[in-house]
Amino acid sequence: MLGTHACTAELERDLIRQRQAEGIAVKRSHGGNVGGRPRTAGVKADAAVRLYLGGETPIPDICAATGVSKSTLYRILRERGLVGVRK
Question: CA separation (Å) from 62 to 10, 12, 54, 75, 87?
Answer without folding.
Answer: 53, 51, 11, 14, 16
